[in-house]
Structure formats: structure tokens, C-alpha cells
Write a sequence for this structure.
């Protein structure tokens, strides 16, 4: 059974909405302000929170923002308001509201909204259950360097790590940062072979350079291979990136990093330092063209 | 990723939210160029809601830093998230300018 949290400063509204939802088979809990609601979602699991926007103290929008940013909670939030102000609406969408309904609430509108949201949520969980029953999951991509910066690749991978592999947000952030470092290095060194001057290019200049390479049939056919492997036997996740460039003397870089005492203000080596810092293990293959980082998956 | 930039006298305040990576570091570069072209002599960076920052993003800041101190400017990180603070410490960025947690 799905548990719903109703949040409104009016006790009569809370009671009437709770009654409607209970009749429709939901287990219902309520809070009379956003602070109480935040406390409840941090102690119990709720599928959906139905929250008024205009409340004394923390507003419904602030509640939603805190749920996402501070509590990192995936409860779906339906916001209710007496007047559908466009600014409120846009802000609610940006903050990740699941739906937006008008007060006074029509019971069927509320029930339909919750039903749709729960169906979506169940589909997402089915996907998560599928991947968590696999001992090993290996997903590979071949990136076209012509479109990497327009592809929103990290956003797509973020969705996969979150919804399919069900990893925690902070852990995903660190993995995405590692992946970004590796792909960025592959683009800069492996594919485009940028010199120190070219590395200072802005996006427009970089696109122009890529266009020139493309027209001369040079370098832009060097695709980048990215593989993400989760192994539940060892409770690890690995990301490897391989480019079509000439590789580099990674052993010399590793030695240099170990000896480095000062701030690295130069254009080289910071990315590798970060990979070291953010991974449990880093390894290089194929003459430095392929780099793999491995992390243990944190569990609750 | 979202960047808010505002000016008050000779102070520029920049708030960065989300993940700053190689895909969006050019947006930071554009904002930093705006600061460099202004009369600002102090840049206050707020990374409290920045979940992480890539080496490309750090590279843009360091590049700006060199030009900015060249014209007598200063940088201060007024707030930072735990992950950004740890990253700045690990890369010894806090030797160059003040980085607050």
C-alpha cells in the first residue's frame, strides 16, 4: 500500500483530503505545516506528498526545494493552490513538482493525479528491481566527438545511475564527475590533440576547430568508448573511457602527482588528481588510451 | 547548472548551483569574463549549492584568477558544499585564495 502525506495548515482540509484518499485505498498521514512534514518524510517513507503552497512559515515551494536539495528525498510532491499564478507554476516545475492542482480540490482530480504518479513510480521501481537482480550489468556507449558537447551525455547517464542502478545522489555526483574528467581528457588529448593554446579556447572557437578537423577529414572520426559496469558480487562500479588517440606516459604523470606539493595552476594533471581523489582504484591500459576507475558502492 | 552573477560597487557575487562539468564550464567562463571586464575588485564565489566541480571548471577559475589578480582583484569563496571544499583542499586551491566551508 502506498503511503500519502497531506500537508496543509487548515485542519479541515487535511481531514477531508485524508478521508478521500483513505476511501480510495491509500494509507494517509498528515502534517499541519511544512516543518512537521519535513520531519515526517525524514523518518517514514511516503510515495506522494500533497502540499499546499500558501502556508505560514515554510511555503509549499520551500518545502519542495528542501525535500530535493537538503533531504535528497524522492517523494513525489503535488502542490495545491487557490490561485494558479504562472510564476508559482514555473518555479514548481523547475523544482520538480509531480503535479499542480487547484484548490478547492476536486476529489477525482486528486485521485487521478496520484494514480498517474504512482504508475510512473512503479515503472521506475520495476526497472530498478530488474537491475538489482543482475549479478553484473555492463553498459557501453560509443560517443561521436562531433556531438559530445551537445549530447547531454552526463544527464542521460545520471538518469540511468539513479533510476536503473538506484545509486545515491552524492555517489552519482562523484561518478559523473569522474566520467566527465575521463571523457573530457579523451576529447582534449585523444581526439582533438589540443595544444596548450587551444585548450584556452572558448566553446565557439572549439567548435570552429572541430569543424575544420571535420572538413579536412582529420581526427573527428576518433570515437570515444565509455563502459559502465556494476558488479554486485563485489559491490563495485567501474567506469572506463577509451579514446582513439596516441595515449600518454601515464606512469610519469602518476610519479609527478605523488611528488606534487604546490598548487597545480597548469593545464595538465588536475583531472588525474581528481580521479585519484574520487576513485578507490584507477588503472590505465592500451598505452594510456584507456582509463578505468572503480568505486565501492556505498550502502545504507 | 545555474550561475547567478550580481554586482554591488566593486564587489561581484557569483552563485553556482548544480554540477559544474566540462559540458557547461563555458558558461562559467562567460560569467568570469564579464567580471574581468567590469570594475569589480573582489569576486565572492558561493559554491554552497554546487554539488561538484570538474577540473575544467577549476581550470577556468584559475585562468581567471591569474588575470584578475593582475588587475589588483581578489577572490574569496564565501561558502562551499562539502564536496567542493574537499576538492579545493585536495587540489590546494585554498593556498591561492580564501576558501570557506
Amino acid at each position: 500500500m502506498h503511503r500519502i502525506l497531506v500537508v496543509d495548515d487548515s485542519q479541515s482540509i487535511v481531514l477531508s483530503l485524508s478521508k478521500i484518499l483513505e476511501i480510495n485505498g491509500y494509507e494517509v498521514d498528515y502534517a499541519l505545516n511544512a516543518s512537521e512534514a519535513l520531519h515526517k518524510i525524514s523518518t517514514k517513507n511516503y510515495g506522494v506528498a500533497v502540499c499546499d503552497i500558501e502556508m505560514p512559515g515554510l511555503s509549499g515551494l520551500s518545502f519542495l526545494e528542501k525535500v530535493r536539495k537538503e533531504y535528497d528525498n524522492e517523494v513525489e510532491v503535488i502542490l495545491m493552490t487557490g490561485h494558479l499564478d504562472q510564476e508559482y507554476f514555473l518555479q514548481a516545475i523547475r523544482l520538480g513538482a509531480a503535479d499542480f492542482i487547484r484548490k478547492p480540490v476536486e476529489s477525482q482530480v486528486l485521485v487521478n493525479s496520484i494514480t498517474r504518479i504512482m504508475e510512473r513510480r512503479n515503472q521506475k521501481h520495476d526497472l530498478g528491481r530488474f537491475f538489482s537482480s543482475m549479478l553484473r550489468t555492463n553498459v557501453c556507449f560509443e560517443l561521436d566527438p562531433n556531438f559530445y558537447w551537445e549530447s547531454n551525455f552526463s544527464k542521460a547517464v545520471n538518469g540511468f545511475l539513479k533510476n536503473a542502478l538506484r545509486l545515491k545522489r552524492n555517489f552519482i555526483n562523484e561518478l559523473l564527475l569522474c566520467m566527465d574528467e575521463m571523457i573530457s581528457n579523451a576529447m582534449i588529448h585523444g581526439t582533438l590533440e589540443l595544444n596548450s593554446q587551444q585548450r584556452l579556447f572558448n566553446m565557439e572557437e572549439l567548435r570552429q576547430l572541430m569543424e575544420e578537423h571535420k572538413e579536412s577529414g582529420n581526427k573527428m572520426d576518433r570515437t570515444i568508448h565509455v563502459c559502465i559496469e556494476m558488479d554486485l558480487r563485489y559491490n563495485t562500479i567501474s567506469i572506463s573511457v577509451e579514446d582513439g588517440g596516441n595515449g600518454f606516459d601515464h606512469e610519469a604523470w602518476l610519479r609527478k602527482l605523488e611528488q606534487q606539493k604546490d598548487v597545480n595552476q597548469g593545464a595538465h594533471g588536475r583531472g588525474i588528481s581528481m580521479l585519484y581523489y574520487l576513485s578507490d582504484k584507477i588503472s590505465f591500459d592500451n598505452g594510456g588510451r584507456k582509463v578505468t576507475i572503480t568505486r565501492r558502492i556505498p550502502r545504507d | 547548472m545555474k550561475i547567478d552573477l550580481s554586482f554591488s560597487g566593486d564587489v561581484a557575487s557569483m552563485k553556482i548551483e548544480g554540477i559544474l562539468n566540462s559540458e557547461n564550464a563555458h558558461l562559467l567562463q562567460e560569467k568570469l569574463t564579464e567580471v574581468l571586464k567590469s570594475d569589480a575588485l573582489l569576486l565572492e564565489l558561493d559554491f554552497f549549492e554546487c554539488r561538484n566541480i570538474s577540473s575544467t571548471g577549476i581550470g577556468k577559475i584559475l585562468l581567471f584568477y591569474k588575470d584578475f589578480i593582475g588587475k589588483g582583484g581578489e577572490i574569496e569563496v564565501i561558502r562551499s558544499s562539502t564536496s567542493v571544499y574537499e576538492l579545493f583542499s585536495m587540489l590546494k586551491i585554498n593556498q591561492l585564495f580564501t576558501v570557506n566551508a
The radius of gyration of chain A is 24 Å. The first strand of chain A starts at residue 3 and ends at 7. The mean pLDDT of chain A is 87. Strands of chain A lie at 3-7, 27-31, 48-52, 76-81, 99-102, 136-143, 224-231, 236-242, 281-285, 290-296.
